[in-house]
Q: What sequence folds into this?
């Protein structure tokens, strides 16, 4: 009997947690939709994104293939491969890794 009560309470707690996560996910998706309609901000040297702010960005420059990094043994959808990290040298100075 005690086990049934403990498991029942656990299930109710997990159900409430799932509902809260659903609300958080809906709020996050709404923030992404709102950012999608905004004009992109151009990335410049010394510019920083605000923590927790979702915004569109525009980067102009050229890729520095000489400093490209290939990270081996990475998988996507259970298919082995590489992650490719390439620095983008911004027109106005600064570097962004993409």
A:
């Amino acid at each position: 009997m005690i086990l049934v009560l403990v498991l029942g309470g656990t299930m109710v707690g997990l159900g409430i947690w799932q509902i809260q996560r659903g609300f958080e996910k809906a709020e996050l998706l709404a923030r992404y939709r709102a950012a999608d309609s905004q004009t992109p901000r151009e990335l410049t040297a010394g510019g920083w994104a605000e923590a927790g702010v979702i915004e569109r960005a525009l980067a102009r420059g050229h890729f520095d293939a000489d400093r490209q990094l290939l990270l081996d043994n990475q998988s996507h959808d259970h298919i082995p491969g590489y992650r490719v990290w390439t620095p983008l040298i911004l027109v106005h100075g600064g570097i962004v890794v993409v």
Observations:
- The mean pLDDT is 90.
